[in-house]
Design brief:
The chain is of the alpha/beta class. The protein has two domains: 197 residues, 3-Layer(bba) Sandwich (FAD/NAD(P)-binding domain), CATH 3.50.50.60; 193 residues, FAD/NAD(P)-binding domain (3-Layer(bba) Sandwich), CATH 3.50.50. Helices cover 32% and strands 23% of the residues. The strands form seven sheets. It has a seven-stranded mixed beta sheet with strand order 7-6-5-2-1-8-20. Strands 10-17-11-12-13 form a five-stranded parallel beta sheet. A three-stranded antiparallel beta sheet has the order 14-15-16. The chain starts with 5 loop residues before the first strand and ends in a 17-residue tail after the last helix. It comes from Streptomyces cyaneogriseus subsp. noncyanogenus. Keywords: FAD, Flavoprotein, NAD, Oxidoreductase. GO terms for molecular function: NADH dehydrogenase activity. This is NADH dehydrogenase.
Length: 459
């Protein structure tokens, strides 16, 4: 039993934040009912995004609503506060939080007091000072960006179909993806597949008219699945006439021209940036110890070193890998570890409140799966290497099993089943980005300017 009322603050509503709060509300069910504990979740969005399904949402294989999990429905015994933590003073046990009402109230940010804090703000896109990137680059980390990218790709095909300018047509049908990790390869594979099918509905745009380019600074793609499957991925993409450029960097995309480090220049209206992530800026605004890479120093029990009552996991945490043979190894900041760490983290907070021994986090990497488009994939699971259709099935089965709630599982499975009978929709809903434009014009206002790309997760 918790000896006194415990205020638990969870910062972040992603994998770690949602699963930790979910675990806590189960483990502390009695304490929550008796008022001996309270759980507050501070998150910028009222939902958790299941990011492995973003490529399918972008390609139209899944509805964007079905790749997000509503936090208030899942965390029904927690207080969900839509806002952002901008600083943490752990010595005083307070967090500075801004909400959607902060500006309207005019009273400034709020300071939330807590007894236990879980720092799980996730990560943000790691960008480089590439000329033109801020103006023309498109991110791929949120469901909003996935929807925007889908609309953008179809819009470019519409532009190419209607223009008489050969240069404009060529730029509209050239798509550059920067980053050969999961996000870049899967997004490129799914969207190229979608565009190839969509081209059948255009009288003057064919699959051979489009250029798809993947730019990767390292000498391989998908390092998580191993070198052999990485080579297979490159071969498969090139077989589909996708231009894969290894050991190459994007040096500029100013004036809508992608300039690569090998000297190649591509006039393009689409540059998708998926070249890695970095720790959330909130971590630098705390008084907690961090590693040289900016992540929080954690113990194998997922507490922050030298900071009692502070906990972290996932992208924000440098957690020792106790299963590794090499000394000083850390758990990779991926979804597989994040979900499992969240369960241990929730248990350990409950143990700490009850004065019970803590559990050490220990999990060996089970493998990796990646989709390369419809019916194509690669997988490295428990030492076995799988390619093609079987890997694609493994990819879908694994992520369906990890998708939270039976409701979401059923909806995704139903969409997949229907996709076997009907073609994907190829409609661009670009007006979603500024839905009041038509009314503002009718009311005598000015048409809105195009919003900046990648408002979230950029830096």
């Amino acid at each position: 039993m918790v000896k006194e009322r415990a205020r638990i603050l969870v910062v972040g509503g992603g994998y770690v934040g949602m699963y930790t709060a979910l675990r806590l509300q189960r483990k502390l069910k009695g304490e929550l009912r008796r008022g001996e504990a309270e759980i507050t979740v501070v998150t910028p969005d009222p939902y958790m995004t299941y990011q492995p399904f973003l490529p399918e949402a972008a390609a139209g294989s899944l509805s964007p609503r079905h790749v997000v999990v509503p936090l208030r429905r899942v965390l029904d015994r927690c207080r969900v506060l839509i806002g952002e933590a901008t600083a943490v003073d752990h010595a005083a046990r307070t967090a500075t939080v801004t909400t959607l009402a902060t500006e309207e109230e005019g009273t400034g940010a709020r300071r939330l007091a807590y007894d236990e804090i879980v720092l799980a703000p996730g990560s943000v896109a790691r960008t480089l000072p590439v000329p033109g990137l801020a103006e023309h680059g498109i991110g791929f980390k949120t469901v909003e960006e996935a929807i925007g990218l889908r609309n953008h790709v179809i819009e470019q095909m519409d532009i190419a179909s209607s223009t008489r300018d050969p240069a404009l047509r060529d730029a509209a049908l050239t798509f550059v993806f920067v980053g050969g990790g999961y996000a870049g390869v899967e997004a490129l594979g799914e969207l190229e597949d979608m565009a190839r099918q969509a081209a059948r509905s255009y009288h003057n745009v064919g699959r051979d008219d489009m250029k798809w380019i993947l730019v990767e600074a390292a000498g391989r793609v998908l390092p998580e699945v191993g070198e052999e499957l990485g080579r297979h991925t490159v071969t498969e993409l090139r077989r589909r006439n996708i231009d894969v450029r290894l050991r190459t960097r994007l040096e500029s995309c100013a004036d809508r021209v992608a300039v690569l480090s090998d000297g190649t220049r591509f006039p393009t209206r689409t540059v998708v940036w998926t070249a890695g992530v970095k720790p959330h800026p909130l971590l630098a605004a705390t008084d907690l110890p961090r590693t040289p890479r900016g992540r929080l120093k954690c113990t194998p029990e997922l507490s922050v070193e030298g900071a009692p009552h502070a906990w972290a996991a996932g992208d924000a945490a440098a957690v020792p890998d106790v299963t590794a043979e090499a000394p000083g190894a850390e758990c990779a900041p991926n979804a597989q570890h994040a979900v499992r760490q969240a369960r241990v983290l929730g248990d350990n907070i409950a143990h700490a409140l009850r004065g019970e021994p803590l559990t050490t986090y220990a999990h060996r990497h089970a493998g990796s799966v990646a989709s390369l488009g419809f019916h194509q994939g690669v997988a490295h699971v428990r030492g076995r290497k799988v390619k093609g259709y079987p890997a694609w099935v493994l990819h879908r089965a694994y992520h369906l099993s990890r998708l939270p709630t039976a409701n979401r599982k059923a909806r995704v499975l139903a969409e997949w089943t229907l996709s076997g009978f009907f073609a994907r929709e190829i409609v661009s809903l670009g007006s979603l980005e500024h839905p009041r434009a038509e009314f503002e014009l009718a009311a005598g206002g000015k048409p809105p300017e195009e919003p900046p790309r990648n408002p979230k997760g950029s830096s």
